[in-house]
């Protein structure tokens, strides 16, 4: 069975919400919509305090090529544009809207009828995707129109569709494939057209047999789309690992997937592309998994951007009494948050409520040079070395040891018998090396 060749771990899957389907969450009383929900330059407000807005209306414009438009997820009155707590843990610019009714822009097709055919040319497709504010929904939040704009001198030959969802606990993509598989197929055809490629490969981990069967059955009716069952191994859903598994090609150090002729999108992003191009619907809602071993009703919700995560927690049975930590994302790559008033954003794939006994860090011990972190690193790095280099602010050596190649999968921290916070320090080191490189380029 196909998989990547280097590293990887097998954490417990805990797909507790795999069979729950997708439930639509009603709009809350108010939303806080951050102006930075994507990699790149934050969007600039296109509305003012006191303005009335409708669902799907643009409220902030992507400022620069690597940026993304932001649309209202609700209808109502703009209460303020101010710094509010967001998932980063910092107060950053947000547009706060008081909800009244649910009035959608008339340009949006709200019907559930499948629209298969598209006459749009590649440039028009990319323009629609940019206007709709679509970003990578697998967590990276890279603006999709940028990824579709293949650099001069490079050529895309394969479209990779990522349905792996290897992160433990999360099931949003699984549920989406089961309920919106046909739309994902049409979205895949649209992206093939935008990239001018003939072949699309959809990768799904082998623990989602129902999704594999369903997507494979649908693919028979679409030219150039093939579905592959992949070995269950984390981080199979990493972009570079998925390309290795499906194409047996290595993305070079510091390189991009397009360097080997591949462009990859998450299934959630592909569905959003379908809605943007075929339904004129901007990205203002997404599927979010709410889960945890103590959660009463682990669920997948379709939630409006800006909805406080407290509303999703309440809809899944409320906060368990033994909750010790709340993560946005899964247990491997997710980040802890300290306030349930923070909003759902475009990159919110899951909300994991961890019991206190599971969330406590073990005492950090000295490194015993067992090399397990090297063995499991899918990028071939040396985490045991990168951590002390980051601790000692030896950023030049960090750069030499390719710290920027780290995909932050957390496999090293997971496997470490000494309970060393390897990923935490590597993330810190990456941030400082990136800053160093930006400073060097500006001189």
What is the element layout, followed by pairings?
Elements lengths: L21 E3 L5 E5 L9 E2 L6 E2 L4 E4 L8 E2 L4 E10 L5 E9 L22 H10 L12 H5 L9 E5 L9 H24 L3 E7 L3 H11 L5 E6 L8 H9 L14 E5 H13 L5 E7 L7 E6 L4 H7 L7 E6 L6 E3 L12 E6 H4 L12 H5 L6 H9 L3 H6 L10 H5 L6 H21 L1
Parallel strand pairs: 1-14, 9-10, 9-12, 10-11, 13-17
Antiparallel strand pairs: 2-8, 3-5, 4-7, 5-6, 7-8, 13-14, 15-16, 15-17
Helix pairs in contact: 1-3, 3-4, 3-6, 10-13
Q: How would you describe this structure to a colleague?
A:
The mean pLDDT is 96. The termini are far apart. This protein has helices at residues 122-131, 144-148, 172-195, 209-219, 239-247, 267-279, 309-315, 356-359, 372-376, 383-391, 395-400, 411-415, 422-442; strands spanning 22-24, 30-34, 44-45, 52-53, 58-61, 70-71, 76-85, 91-99, 158-162, 199-205, 225-230, 262-266, 285-291, 299-304, 323-328, 335-337, 350-355. Among the domains are: 122-279, NADH-ubiquinone oxidoreductase 51kDa subunit (Rossmann fold), CATH 3.40.50; 372-442, no CATH class. The chain is built from 13 helices and 17 strands. The strands form four sheets. A six-stranded mixed sheet has the order 1-14-13-17-15-16. With 443 residues, it is of the alpha/beta class.
- Compute the number of helices: 13
Fill in the CATH topology of the domain at 122-279.
Answer: Rossmann fold
Order of helices and strands: EEEEEEEEHHEHEHEHEHEEHEEEHHHHHH
* Rg value: 21 Å
The CATH class label of the domain at 122-279 is Alpha Beta
Percentage beta strand: 15-25%
Helix content: 25-40%
Instruction: Pick out the low-confidence regions.
Output: none
Number-wise, the strands total 17
CATH superfamily of the domain at 122-279: NADH-ubiquinone oxidoreductase 51kDa subunit
Strand order of the largest sheet: 1-14-13-17-15-16
**Judging by the overall fold, what is the CATH architecture of the domain at 122-279?**
3-Layer(aba) Sandwich
């Amino acid at each position: 069975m196909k998989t990547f060749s280097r590293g990887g771990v097998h954490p417990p899957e805990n797909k507790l919400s795999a069979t729950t389907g997708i439930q639509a969450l009603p709009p809350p009383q108010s939303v806080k919509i951050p102006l930075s929900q994507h990699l790149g330059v934050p969007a600039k407000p296109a509305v003012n305090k006191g303005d009335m807005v409708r669902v799907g209306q643009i409220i902030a414009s992507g400022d620069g090529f690597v940026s993304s438009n932001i649309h209202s997820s609700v209808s109502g009155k703009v209460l303020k544009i101010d710094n509010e707590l967001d998932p980063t843990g910092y107060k950053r610019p947000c547009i706060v809207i008081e909800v009244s009714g649910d009035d959608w822009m008339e340009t949006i097709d709200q019907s559930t009828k499948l629209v298969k055919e598209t006459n749009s040319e590649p440039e028009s497709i990319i323009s629609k995707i940019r206007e709709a504010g679509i970003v990578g929904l697998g967590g990276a939040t890279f603006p999709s129109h940028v990824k579709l704009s293949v650099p001069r001198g490079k050529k895309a030959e394969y479209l990779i569709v990522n349905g792996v969802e290897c992160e433990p606990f999360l099931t949003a993509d699984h549920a989406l494939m089961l309920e919106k598989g046909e739309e994902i197929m049409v979205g895949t055809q649209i992206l093939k057209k935008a990239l001018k490629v003939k072949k699309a490969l959809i990768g799904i981990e082998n623990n989602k047999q129902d999704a594999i069967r369903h997507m494979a059955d649908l693919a028979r009716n679409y030219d150039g789309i093939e579905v592959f069952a992949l070995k269950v191994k984390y981080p199979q859903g990493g972009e570079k690992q998925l390309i290795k598994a499906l194409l047996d090609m290595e993305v070079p150090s510091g390189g991009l997937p397009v360097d080997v002729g591949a462009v990859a999108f998450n299934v959630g992003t592909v569905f959003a592309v379908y809605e943007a191009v075929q339904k004129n619907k901007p990205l203002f809602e997404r599927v979010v998994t709410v889960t945890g071993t103590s959660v009463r009703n682990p669920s997948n919700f379709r939630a409006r951007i800006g909805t406080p995560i407290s509303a999703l927690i309440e809809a899944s049975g409320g906060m368990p009494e033994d909750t010790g930590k709340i993560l946005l994302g899964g247990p491997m790559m997710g980040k802890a948050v300290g306030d349930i008033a923070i909003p759902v954003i475009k990159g919110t794939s899951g909300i994991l409520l961890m019991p206190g006994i599971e969330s406590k860090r073990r005492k950090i011990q000295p490194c015993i040079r067992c090399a397990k972190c090297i063995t499991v690193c899918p990028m071939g790095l040396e985490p045991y070395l990168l951590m002390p280099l980051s601790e000692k602010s030896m950023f030049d050596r960090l750069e030499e040891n390719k710290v920027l190649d780290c995909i932050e999968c957390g496999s090293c921290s997971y496997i470490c018998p000494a309970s060393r916070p390897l990923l935490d320090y590597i993330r810190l080191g990456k941030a400082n090396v990136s800053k160093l490189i930006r400073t060097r380029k500006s001189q």
